[in-house]
Recover the amino acids of this structure.
């Protein structure tokens, strides 16, 4: 890549990786460093943040547009590449209507970029726009919005340091959200809080835990229902909260009457005495905070899992106060914002449903066009319809060929698509199917805002120009918008600040915010008029539904989609500290401290011995969907009957094995439970 003529300058930005949202900037000598940001107040960053400059100067960066000629991608001018996009999209809309287009937005990108991208889909006449929040916390958001009225952390990182008990389930913040863990959760533990970790696998978070419940993947509902039963049996509930702030406790009591704590513990694969002790720690604490992640959300019963967790918080009055609540730690640096600004198929900015005529009218007053009233399709549904109802797709800052479930089926779907344009930093597995590839801008080359996991809108500032002929993402989206939409003004906005201003007009959650107001700090939603920094703890006097009470909901166990045949193991997939998602950002350079060069399959010693597998042996993992070969890591850290690998590596794609059964409500896939056979490679 040519860095000739590129100058780098340290200016306050936000880390492009996880949703914690640490302040980072160029630190000289090809490295990124922390500044004293709103979240990382001492300038602390984790190894991912420290490696964030790698992607910016990576020699594999795309620097010119590419177009497909005789089956190969070749370099082209911007004019040529963009005219191909225009011609293909115009043709598809003319022949099949706007719902034949799919827009994949990016939770790695700014609010302004996602807003304009989602607006482009709507103005063209389709709600087929989604982002990988679908694959991530869609189920959490569905359950929390329905019950509490807001699909976001109920609390703030700061106030969570006041918790007396941390119930950390299906999430491994020590590796995935390291600064949140070290600077906010660990201080609570050091002050005496009890940490309960629910995870089929012991990992860095477990090291700090007082109690570990190694749940059988896909069996969180029986576990959480049994905990609820203990709370009732031992009178650890908050009676006045139940009376004043909840409804339906009798219905829940009735449902739990049939629950046998010991039987549920056995079904969930945990020791009943440990489960009881965990319930007591949570129920007896003055302030108990729950944290939830992919281990809970990425199941066919993901929404139910979060409903069951919400029951615990409501039974014990752990909502609406500092140090409590239900707190999904969000994935990428702007996955919260991508949803807030409407890069989701069912909602307009601020989560107002597309089916609400008043909401559509409000948006139409600013856009000059009314968005369509029918919800669009979700990411996995869209891919499944490639070549059928869906003919063309615009993928912005995502890599679905690696990250969507049932990768072999996804590959066939991409083959059937008539036209694909990808806006990315690198060639990826997804660009292998592209007709046009547009070179975009990395975090350090853009200005804009992102919204972190505790609802803080913060500003990114450019530290560099994009390399070669690459362009800022916002500019690319604006140009495509101007070409495709024959409506003067719609995409003529003058840079990110004016896009943000328009966003504050259409998004009630962001109303009243401004670039100047945010400055080097943040503005947090909801942002009442006259507020300086926004609302910290949600649901204090009223739930965000507008109601004083929230319902308690009976939840039943739904078994995972994959049945286990004799001799099969459960594969659960996830992340490690040293890699990020599909690996496109940190996968290329081996400079990350302690970075694993490749994936491994964690397998319990007894499961390994039964199959004649020794540590380091290559093993074949297969099922009806696909096959992957990895080296075995024989370790008692993983529970018996379960194996674990990451989905980070395109060369050993875990998603060749995962199924595409979806949660019926949130449409999130079951990444955390696949039946597989594991055997040594001879
Ligand atoms: N280093 C690093 N950090 C990241 C990312 C990354 O790729 N690398 N990605 C970012 C993104 S997009 C996201 S969404 C977050 C995700 O952050 P996490 O939610 O922490 O992500 P995972 O590692 O996928 O899953 C968390 C844990 O769930 C456990 N688990 C598996 N099955 C079950 C189950 O059935 N029940 C329960 N209770 N637990 C189960 C796994 O063993 C794993 O330890 O991380 C963000 N931060
Ligand atoms: N088996 C299994 N699969 C999973 C999961 C799991 O736990 N297990 N987790 C799921 C989850 S939670 C998530 S979030 C998804 C992630 O799914 P994806 O979003 O598809 O994965 P990423 O690797 O984050 O893809 C980001 C892409 O955007 C590009 N990019 C990054 N920054 C920019 C930018 O500023 N501009 C532009 N133009 N491009 C940029 C990167 O180069 C990369 O190609 O994966 C899901 N898939
Ligand atoms: S904790 Fe998250 S936001 Fe902070 S430096 Fe690490 S990856 Fe970046
Ligand atoms: Mo995610």
């Amino acid at each position: 890549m040519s860095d000739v003529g590129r100058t780098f300058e340290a200016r306050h930005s936000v880390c492009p990786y996880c949703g914690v949202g640490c302040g980072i900037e160029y630190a000289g000598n090809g490295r990124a460093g922390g500044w004293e940001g709103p979240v990382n107040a001492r300038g602390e960053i984790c190894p991912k943040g420290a490696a964030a400059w790698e992607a910016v100067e990576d020699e594999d960066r795309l620097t010119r547009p590419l177009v497909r000629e005789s089956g190969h991608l070749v370099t082209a001018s911007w004019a040529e590449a963009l005219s191909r996009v225009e011609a293909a999209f115009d043709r598809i809309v003319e022949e099949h209507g706007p719902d034949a287009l799919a827009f994949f937005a990016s939770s790695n990108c700014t609010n302004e970029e996602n807003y304009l991208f989602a607006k482009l889909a709507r103005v063209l006449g389709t709600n087929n726009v989604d982002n990988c929040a679908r694959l991530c916390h869609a189920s959490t958001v569905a359950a929390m919005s329905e019950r509490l009225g807001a699909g976001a952390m109920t609390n703030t990182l700061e106030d969570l340091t006041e918790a007396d008990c941390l119930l950390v389930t299906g999430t491994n913040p020590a590796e995935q959200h390291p600064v949140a863990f070290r600077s906010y959760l660990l201080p609570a533990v050091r002050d005496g809080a009890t940490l309960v970790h629910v995870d089929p696998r012991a990992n860095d978070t477990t090291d700090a835990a007082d109690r570990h419940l190694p749940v059988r993947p896909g069996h969180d509902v029986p576990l959480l229902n049994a905990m609820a039963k203990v709370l009732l049996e031992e009178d650890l509930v908050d009676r006045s909260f139940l009376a004043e702030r909840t409804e339906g406790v009798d219905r829940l009591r009735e449902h739990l009457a049939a629950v046998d704590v010991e039987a549920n513990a056995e079904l969930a694969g945990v020791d009943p005495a440990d489960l009881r002790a965990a319930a007591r720690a949570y129920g007896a604490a003055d302030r108990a905070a729950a944290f939830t992640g992919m281990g809970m959300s990425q199941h066919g019963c993901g929404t139910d899992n979060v409903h069951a967790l919400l029951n615990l918080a409501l039974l014990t009055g752990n909502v609406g106060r500092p140090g409590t609540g239900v707190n999904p730690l969000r994935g990428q640096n702007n996955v919260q914002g991508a949803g807030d600004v409407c890069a989701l198929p069912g909602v307009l900015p601020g989560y107002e449903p597309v089916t609400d005529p008043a909401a559509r009218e409000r948006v139409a007053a600013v856009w000059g066009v009314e968005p369509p009233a029918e919800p669009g399709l979700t990411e996995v549904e869209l891919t499944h319809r490639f070549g059928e109802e869906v003919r063309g797709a615009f993928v912005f800052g995502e890599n679905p060929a690696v990250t969507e479930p049932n990768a072999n089926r996804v590959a066939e779907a991409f083959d059937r698509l008539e036209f694909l344009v990808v806006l990315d930093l690198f060639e990826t597995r997804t660009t292998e199917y592209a007709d046009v590839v547009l070179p975009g801008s990395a975090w350090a080359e853009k200005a804009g805002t992102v919204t972190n996991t505790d609802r803080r809108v913060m500003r990114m500032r450019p530290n560099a120009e994009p390399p070669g002929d690459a362009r800022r993402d916002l500019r690319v989206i604006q140009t495509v918008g101007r070409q495709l939409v024959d409506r003067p003004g719609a995409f003529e906005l003058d840079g990110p600040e004016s896009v943000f201003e328009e966003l504050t007009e259409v998004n009630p959650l962001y109303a009243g915010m401004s670039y100047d107001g945010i400055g080097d700090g943040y503005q947090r939603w909801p942002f009442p008029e006259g507020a300086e920094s926004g609302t910290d703890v949600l649901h204090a006097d009223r739930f965000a539904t507008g109601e004083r009470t929230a319902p308690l909901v009976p939840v039943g166990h739904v078994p995972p989609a994959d049945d286990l045949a004799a001799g099969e193991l459960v594969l659960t997939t996830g992340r490690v500290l040293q890699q990020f998602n599909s690996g496109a950002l940190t996968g290329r350079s081996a400079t990350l401290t302690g970075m694993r060069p490749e994936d491994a399959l964690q397998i319990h010693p007894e499961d390994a011995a039964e199959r004649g597998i020794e540590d380091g042996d290559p093993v074949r993992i297969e099922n009806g969907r696909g096959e992957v070969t990895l080296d075995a890591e024989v370790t008692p850290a993983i529970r018996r009957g379960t194996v674990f690998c990451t989905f980070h590596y395109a060369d050993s794609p875990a998603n060749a094995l995962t199924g595409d059964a979806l949660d019926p409500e949130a449409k999130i896939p079951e990444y955390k439970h696949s039946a597989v056979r594991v055997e040594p490679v001879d």
